Description:
By secondary structure, the chain is α/β, with parallel strands linked by helices. It has three domains: 2-117, Rossmann fold; 136-232, Orthogonal Bundle (Arc Repressor Mutant, subunit A), CATH 1.10.10.10; 284-474, no CATH class. It is built from 16 helices and 14 strands. The chain has helices at 16-26, 63-80, 93-96, 136-151, 165-172, 189-199, 234-240, 252-255, 284-294, 304-320, 328-342, 362-375, 393-398, 409-425, 433-441, 446-462; strands at 2-7, 32-38, 53-57, 85-90, 109-113, 152-153, 156-157, 160-161, 203-206, 213-216, 346-347, 355-356, 465-468, 471-474. A five-stranded parallel sheet has the order 3-2-1-4-5. A three-stranded antiparallel sheet has the order 8-10-9. It has a two-stranded antiparallel sheet with strand order 6-7. It is flat, with a radius of gyration of 25 Å. Mean pLDDT is 78; it is low at 121-126, 153-157 and 219-281.
Amino acid sequence: MDVLIVDTTRAINGTAADITNSVLASFPNPERLAFVTRADQDGELDQLPSDAAVKSLPGLPGDLDAAAAVAEFIRGISAELPDVAFIVYSFHRRVLAKDGDLAQLGQLIVTRSLREHVPQRAGQSNSAWPTQLMPLEDALDALEKALRRGQERPGHRRAVLKTELRTLLTMVEPRFDKDMYPLAGTPRLISILLHEAQERGMIRQFGREPQISIALGESVGPSTAARPASVPQPEEFAIQAVAPVPAPAVAPSATAAVTINVPAQAHSSKPVPELTRVSTTPSRSWEFADVLRQRRLGPYPEVRHILYEEIADVAALNGRTESPVLTVRALARQAVTATRQKAPDHFPRRNGDDLPKDKYDWRGLENFVVQVISRTELTLGSDGKPLPSDASIWATRQAPVRYPFPENIKITFDAEMIYEVVRTCQDVTPDDIVHLAGALLGGRGVQQTDHVEDVLDYLLQQGRIKGESDRLLSSEK
């Protein structure tokens, strides 16, 4: 017989009972039954079977906290029933992957996701703000700061698309990050917040789903609502999504335990204040960005696509003239110089202390150019043949650029970054597309996720990655 363990610590408020009932209906009469719950779910789960073991965790437990509680049950039950198998249901990714304390166990453990047992929402049943996530006043304050940040553009102010709000809110208030705070995934959370803000006269909304835009009441007059230009067009948003609304600029070594989204490549002039966190488990976007940083592949989400345009312009200009041979080092220096000139004077950071342009990691950006060009074999050796991708980086720096350049270097160069993430992690699934967008582009809107999907399609067509079930693997030879 099997032992059933159900971990509901990441269930949205009001769903834990329905989820457990669904699991029990599909798995009747287990040998033993155990539950890992949150303390605030006690009222929801007061009808659990009387013979079930229950461990209630305080606050909002992280992945490793839940894994430790599940492992404790397994060790205790195994002492009495050494030959049973354990079926573990959870939302937590590290529980499902049997990480943490679970990795130390030798028992037969089968993990299954609780997503299949989430009840379907009927209409808009939950319209109350989840105060356990944060007080409503804190959320409204974060909304005001996010809108001020999103509306600021050189020369004029603009409304903010509703689809951009989650990214902007997470920049100023980490508790809006769904990867780290389960209650941030409360259904209609953003809609509830906007309703509360509109009731207070803080904001004005224009358009209709799925193209709603929001602006602070003080910044949009009656005539603005009628102007289509106040909402960025798709082509405009695709560009602006990267540069004007960058991710927080902090040094990764100082903030690995507190950063939620992708940190900008910058030299932090002041220490980042400690943030109150329930878990120190890094988000999926952080994991992907950390892979890239270790490989010197960025991600530089604020300026990278602007940099690509400058690389293409410098290479094209040199190719049309009788200029001296353009080396990779010279190309990197010229492109980064042009990018720096076009960059804003300050890069916003989550703690409100904007980073001056001269503190940004421009030297690291030059090294990124050398790395990515080396990997795409766009250089020539002394024999006039392309240098292989595994050539010394020192040889690449002095090598001349090979023509013609790829037609779409945004796809070609970003493909090197995503390939490295896939090769390193070996467990990228369709659910990770938004996290790849967050890591590479600092946002998770439609334009960003579409770009990631285009890059993945490119890598699949090249045969450099392959699908295995729902995972992507590298096709290393």
